[in-house]
Fold:
Amino acid sequence: MLSAVESKLDTDQQTTYFRCIAGCSAKHSIYDVIYTCPSCGNLLEVHHEREPLKKRDANQWKQLFDSRASTSTWPYGSGVWGMREWVVPSLADENVVSMFEGNTNLFWAERLGQQLGVPDLWIKLCGNSHTGSFKDLGMTVLVSVVKQMMAQGSAVKAVACASTGDTSAALAAYAAYAGIPAVIFLPAGKVSTAQLIQPVANGAHVLALDTDFDGCMKIVQEVTKDNSIYLANSMNSLRIEGQKTVGIEIVRQFDWDVPDWIIIPVGNLGNISALHKGFQLMMDLGLITRMPRLVAAQTVRANPFYESFQNGFKEKVRVTAKDTLANAIRIGDPVSYEKAIKAIAATDGIVEQATENELAAAAAHADLTGMFTCPHTGVALAVLTKLIQRGVIKSSDKTVVISTAHGLKFTDFKVGYHESTLEEVTSQYANPAVHLPANADVVKAEIEKRLMH
Ligand SMILES: Cc1ncc(COP(=O)(O)O)c(C=O)c1O
Ligand SMILES: [Zn+2]
Structure:
């Protein structure tokens, strides 16, 4: 006989499971070590059957999520676990691995919006999180599921990922918090100092390989084939479950109002797929009645999704990604390509790109209004500027830019900009520190000179 708790967990597992994105009929337990469909090889997604969720109506869901947003009651103080019924309902409290991620600030970018001609401009600062990027949202879910798998006697011994820097920081931190060994594959010399030192400090086994991200991805897939090392990249759709809460959180922060546009920098395309998934769930359960238009922002130097969009998604374009200031989106063969096409199609979305000079200028401009933007956020802001100039985004539109990482992880980029040493970048907003003798008259003269400008 199952206890009441066991029987509830059993039911939750029946209604939340992995299924193939191409429509194959099999259901797989989210506690199985499985990343792709055994029949057709496509990616899986976590599916939540809608009928059981409809036992609460839209208003009840809103009230429940609102009530948890400011609590410290375990595990609801996390923006992700505050929506646990929509994420992994069958996860036991004791296996939640959380550092109260999510609930990041969504603030009105008043001066920047005015200067750009879109006064209703908002920035969702996902970088204000435990490891400094939105990756924490997905990693709390993945590592929690692994903890539950291990508690139930799974053969998994460790977790592993390939990374452009932020995924590895998040995996290393959450794995260390849970006491699970982590193996990290980084492209040697292609991540920032802060990104490299994060997994090192958290005790992960850090392997810097002489290849790019796409090369690291191939190796990690090989290494995780024997199922004792669990793959933590976003081709593992558990990550998407956590990341999808960011869209729900934005709408909640707007008192359940949907913005007209959400712009997000993309690489492997997990993030935009996740945004769409969260919005689709809210639509299906009646919490919202329309979709925002999603904009995927790429760097010109790693733009396969932009090129595919240009050909009407007739063909998947792969590129060899080139060096870029936006190193975390230096990805040439995005894994979540099919999911991201759905996201663009379902939201009348757009894919646009930005050059090194455009992303650096957009980031520096935003910083002058009080931000401290990472280069990826610079890509999104540059794309915003283009869409305004083209008349696609109108002055009355409510627009959200998702800032995906904290600028403090990318100080090399900032220093290079203000010292005017970045390649392909004209540092029009350079504001280097002024070195002076300790002499009050000299100092006063210098301040006066600046104030006159
Ligand atoms: C800071 C930052 N922005 C954007 C992205 C792009 O996210 P995704 O790879 O899911 O498209 C990443 C990770 O790749 C990132 O680390
Ligand atoms: Zn399939």
Summary: Residues 106-132+239-418 form a domain with the Rossmann fold fold (CATH 3.40.50.1100). The two ends are 80 Å apart (CA to CA). The mean pLDDT is 96.
